[in-house]
Amino acid sequence: DFGRSSELAFVVEPSDDIAVQEQPLILYCQVEGIQPITITWRKNGAMIVDSENAFMLANGSLYVSRFQRLRGDGSSDEGEYDCMAQNHYGLLVSRKAKIQAATMSDFHIHPQNAVVEEGGVARFQCQIHGLPEPVILWHKNSVPVNTDNERYTLLPKGVLQITGLRAEDSGIFHCVATNIANVKFSREARLTVSGSHSTVYKDPMILVGPENLTLTVHQTAVLECIATGNPRPIVSWSRLDGRPIGVEGIQVLGTGNLMISDLTVQHSGIYVCAANKPGTRVRRTAQGSLVVQAPAEFVQHPQSISRPVGTTAIFTCVAQGEPPPQITWLRNGQILETSDHIKLKNNNSTLSIYGINQADEAIYQCLAENSAGSTQASARLTVLWADGLPSPPQSVRAETVSATTIQVSWEKPLQNTKEIIGYVLHIRKAADPVEMEYQEAVSKSTFQQLVTDLEPSTSYSFYIKAYTSRGASKASEVTVVSTLGEVPAMPSLFIKVINSTTVQATWEPSIKLGQHEGFKLYYRKVHLSQYTGPVLLASNITAYNITHLDASVVYEVKLLAYNQHGDGNSTVRFVSLRETVERTVLNPPCDCMKDEQNNKTSTTGIIIGIHIGVTCIIFCILFLMFGYRGRLLMCKNVQEQLSTPQIPRSQRSATGLVLNGATRRDRDDRDLNGKQLDMNELERLFPASPSQEQQEKGMTSAHSLSAPHDETQISTLPLDELSIIEEQPDPLPKNPHASSPAAPAPNHGFANEG
C-alpha cells in the first residue's frame, strides 16, 4: 500500500486556449508518481508523433512552433488535446483541452444615423464576432468617447447610449473592435440633436429590452434596458419568479442597464425590466433570460483501494455542474466496458467490480464533462495476492432436493489445504446480475450445504471459495441447476348467496399462488358423494356464479388452482340457501301506504299527549292558588260543578302532593296533641256559616276526595259559596306510601291555627 505521492497523478493538465495564427503554442502537462513514467500526447484521440511543427519538451509539455488554423494539406492545429502518462501500475489520461484559433470577422451590425430631439435618448450599436471576444470602443469625431461623462454609457456588447441629449452631443460616431487576432473599424454614423426640449406628454416606452444570454460562472452579464417618455420613466428590475435580485455584485449602468458581476448558477432566471411613469401605475415591461453554466467539478473523488482476490471493489465518483455533467469511466486510458462482474450504477457515479482478480488491477478514471467544461479524477485498484493460498475447491455438484431446496457438495482443494479456515458458498439466481449474489459460510470440515428457501422452477448458479487468514482461493467452477416445479398454493374462497337458487363463488388472485394455469371449481349436495365439475376457469377469472340450486339442502363448494405440475390443495366452503327463502317469507315487501298511515296516527297521538300535559299543568297551578286558603275546597252546588280530568298518581305535580300531605299531617297532629279546631275563628273568616245539611254534603265530598283511588277534583266557585268543615279522622290507608309524611304546608292561612 503506497502513499499518495506514489500514485500516478497529474500536477498540471492542459487547459483550453486560443492560439494566434503563425505564433507558437505550448500545452502544459506535468505528472508525478513512481518512475519510470512515459508521457504521450493525443489530438482528437490520435497519437501525436514528434515533428518539426509539434514535439514534446523534456518536462512533458507539447510545443507547437507555428500554429496553423488551416494548412496546405487540409489539416489544422485546432482540436482537442490530451496527454497520457503511464508507469508500471497503469495509464492515466488528462482532461481534454480545446484549442481554437484567434479570429475576428467583419462587422455584421454597423451604427446608423440618428436624429433625436433635445433631452431625448440616442443609441448606437455595432456587432462583430471573434475569438477571443473583441473589445469594442467608441470614437466621436475620431476621438475616443469620454467615459467619464455620466450621460454616455458603453455596454460590453458594442452598445453606446446617450441620455439627456444636448446640442453639443451632435457628431460622427464609429466603433473600434480589437482582439489578439486583429483590429477593425466600423462605418461612421451621424447623430443630429434637433429642436428644444419638448414638454408634450409621452407614454413610457422601452426602446431596447434585455437579450437572452448564456454565460459561464464568474463572467459578467449586462442586461440592457433603455426607455423613453415624458416625463422620463423610472426603470426598475425584478425576477419573474419573484426571488430577490440581491445587491452583491449588482450595478446599474446609465439610466437602467443591469450589470451582474461574478455570475453564479443562482443568477440564472428570467429578468423583467419595467419602465414606470413617475407617480402612476402606467408601465411598460420587457424580459430576457439569463442562463449561467458551471463547468463540471467533483464533489467526491474516487479513492485508491487494495482488495484481496475474489472480493468486491467499489469506486465512487460524484460530480456537479450546470448542465449536469455526464460521467465516463476509463480503465488504463480506455473506455471501460461493463460485463457480468463490472457494473455501473447511480448514473455511472458508482463503479463496482465483483470477484476481482489479477487482471482487474489497473488505474480507473472518472471523467465528468458538460458544455461548460470537463474534469477528471483517478484511483488505482491493487489486487492482493498471497503465495501459498489454496487452489480452488474441486468437483462442485448441485442436486435438486425439492421445489425450494438444492444440495451443493464439493471436495477440498488439491493444494495448500492446511491453513483453510472455512468455505464460502456463492449463490445467485442465474437470471440475476452479479450484485444480487449472496453467500453462505461453511466450516472447514463440511463439504456439503443444503440451500433452502429457494423459488420453485428457478435456475441457480453456485461456486465455492476456500478461505485462509491471508486471503481466499480462486473461485471454483460454476455449476447451474434448477429447483423442482411446485403445485400452486390454496386460493382464498368466499361464497355469497345471490338468491334462493344461485350463489357466487369469489376468490382473490395472489402471488402466493405461484405459477398457475387456472382454477378448478367443484360443488355438490352434502349428502351426495358425486361432485359436479370440474368447472375449468382461466387464471385471470376471480368469480363464478353457480345456478339452479335446490334451496332445501346444503351445498359444498370446492376450489383449487392447478399448473403443469398438478393440482394444488383445495379450499372448501359450505352454503345453505334455506335461510334466504325463510327471510323472504318472514320479511314480505313493505306496505308503504299502511306505513304512512301509521306514521300519521303516531303524529296525532303526540299532539294529543302534548295538549293533555299542558292541561294538567294549568290545573295544578289553580290547585296551588286555592290551597293556601284552606286544606280542602268543596263544591256547594253539585249541578254547577265543572269536572276536570283525573290525574293519575304518577303524573301529579309535586305541589299537589305537598298539600295532600299537609292535610294528613295536620290531622295526625290533632289526634296526638288533643287540640280542637277553633270554630269561632273560622266563622270570623267565613261569616256565612253553612247548614248542617251542607256540612254533611261537604263531608261526603271530602270522603270522596280521599277515596282509595287517591284522585283530586277541583271546582271553581264564587267565594261566598265555599264552606269549611271540620275533617273527621280517617282510618289508616293500606298503601304504605300514602301514610308517609309529606312536606309541610305553606306558612299562611288557617292551616297554622290547628
UniProtKB/TrEMBL annotation:
The chain crosses the membrane at residues 606-626. Residues 8-100, 105-192, 204-287, 295-382 form the Ig-like domain. Gene3D superfamilies: Immunoglobulins (2.60.40.10). Its main location: membrane. It is found in: Membrane. Residues 392-486, 487-583 form the Fibronectin type-III domain. Residues 663-673 have a biased composition (Basic and acidic residues). CDD domains: FN3. SUPFAM superfamilies: Fibronectin type III, Immunoglobulin. Pfam families: fn3, I-set, Ig_3. Keywords: Disulfide bond, Glycoprotein, Immunoglobulin domain, Membrane, Repeat, Signal, Transmembrane, Transmembrane helix. GO terms for biological process: cell-cell adhesion. Residues 643-654, 689-704 have a biased composition (Polar residues). Residues 643-754 are annotated as: Disordered. It is a single-pass membrane protein. Residues 735-748 have a biased composition (Low complexity). It comes from the Eukaryota. One of its GO terms (cellular component) is membrane. Belongs to the immunoglobulin superfamily. DCC family. This is Immunoglobulin superfamily DCC subclass member 3. It comes from Nesospiza acunhae. The gene is Igdcc3.
